[in-house]
Specification:
The chain is α/β, with parallel strands linked by helices. The chain contains 16 helices and 12 strands.
Length: about 375
């Protein structure tokens, strides 16, 4: 949606292929919509939760076939994709340029060492055990896992004469690759000529402030808790318990993204489905999210430090870079306690360095004009 809105409808004929649940958003801005089958959200969450390969060969091929049908129907001059890995094959088969929107932290060329992954084995053995006894084997296991993921779709990618030995090369493949990061936040050992940093891709649900918003005491700190559509709300009571133990002198704002919850009513806890992120600068002292780039980048764009409670490896990779910059703290959901939440928040509030680092990233983000960059790249490649 953010990319679509950055392109002027008077200059481009735009069609969006996506899951049917997004159709109402597209119709509201007059864009042609094409239904597209994707991995169901619950199944995808289960796959990443268990650190399993995203695709089997049959599913990958079915996505390629569907891509080809839509490309034949729409006849685009250029295809812009977001985590639709089958487009690496289908666009080349169709001889259409593929612009891949992804994150630089998925590149094998990241400068930071790949952290201890988020996987069932780590949850069973614990981080401390892994660090003490398994660290020499972690890079080997990670490389094997990405090799296995690429091997599973090898016949599909062979259709375009490409051989991938690391699935991260598929994630970051394309005629043009747009990284939704900054080179200072996620540096690479080397940057290819067709790879461009475009800054954060922050999207706000079109909504209004809730009716209770003006009643919040302006002299109290506001903490935003937003676990997003992929966050596990089972940890929400633990988070709230930890925050409430800090005292009544804070407002705890919880966005639920349409999910149901059974939180008890507390005077300083306020829930809402969505907030207008475009209008929240200087509102929050801290953001607690799922560690993914959308909520983290929103927080940093306000100059606000964040805590990332990670559930999968995408969130892990994003949050490790935010933590390396000193603008946030990475926590794992499976060993989370109210005391950990409390002590982490107190640590961030007692150290000015987190706020300084977040404000530094805010300035870096402001150097990128997403609309201008995307329009230029699309124009030059059509």
């Amino acid at each position: 949606m953010k990319i679509i809105k950055s392109l002027e409808a008077s200059e481009f004929d735009i069609a969006l292929a996506a899951d049917l649940k997004y159709q109402n958003l597209i119709e509201s801005i007059g864009i042609v919509f094409q239904p597209l089958a994707s991995i169901p959200a619950e199944l995808f969450s289960d796959i990443v939760d268990k650190a399993n390969p995203i695709y089997s060969e049959s599913v990958f091929n079915s996505h390629i076939d569907e891509d080809l049908k839509i490309i034949e129907k729409v006849k685009p001059d250029i295809v812009v994709g977001d985590f639709r890995h089958s487009l690496s094959v289908s666009c080349r088969l169709s001889k259409v340029k593929y612009v891949n929107i992804t994150n630089a932290y998925w590149s094998p060329e990241i400068v930071s060492r790949f952290p201890i992954p988020e996987a069932p084995a780590v949850r069973i053995l614990g981080e401390r055990f892994i660090k003490l006894f398994c660290m020499p084997f972690v890079p080997i296991i990670i490389k094997f896992n990405f090799f296995n993921m690429a091997f599973l779709v090898r016949k599909s990618t062979a259709r375009i004469g490409l051989k991938f030995n690391d699935y991260r090369n598929i994630i970051t493949d394309g005629d043009v690759i747009l990284f939704c990061d900054t080179p200072e936040l996620v540096p690479l050992k080397q940057n290819k000529p067709n790879q461009f940093y475009i800054g954060p891709l922050i999207w706000s649900m079109p909504c209004e402030f809730p009716a209770w918003w003006p009643t919040l005491a302006p002299n109290k700190k506001k903490i935003l808790v937003s676990l997003g559509s992929s966050g596990n709300l089972d940890v929400l009571p633990v988070i709230i318990a930890g925050l409430r133990s800090l005292g009544e002198d804070i407002h705890i704002i919880v966005t639920l993204s349409g999910k149901k919850n059974n939180l008890p009513a507390f005077p300083n806890v306020h829930t809402v489905d969505f907030l207008p992120f475009d209008n929240l600068e200087k509102e929050f002292a801290l953001v607690i999210g799922n560690g993914g780039s959308p909520i983290c980048h929103a927080s940093l764009s306000w100059g606000t430090p964040c805590i990332g409670i990670i559930f999968n490896n995408d969130q892990l990779l994003n949050m490790i870079h935010v933590q390396n910059r000193g603008a946030g703290v990475l926590l794992r959901f499976w060993n989370l306690t109210a005391e950990i939440i409390k002590s982490t928040v107190e640590h961030i509030f007692s150290s000015e360095s987190y706020s300084r680092s977040a404000k530094s990233l805010k300035k870096e983000f402001e150097n990128y004009d997403l609309g201008k960059i995307v329009k230029k790249i699309v124009t030059e490649n059509t």
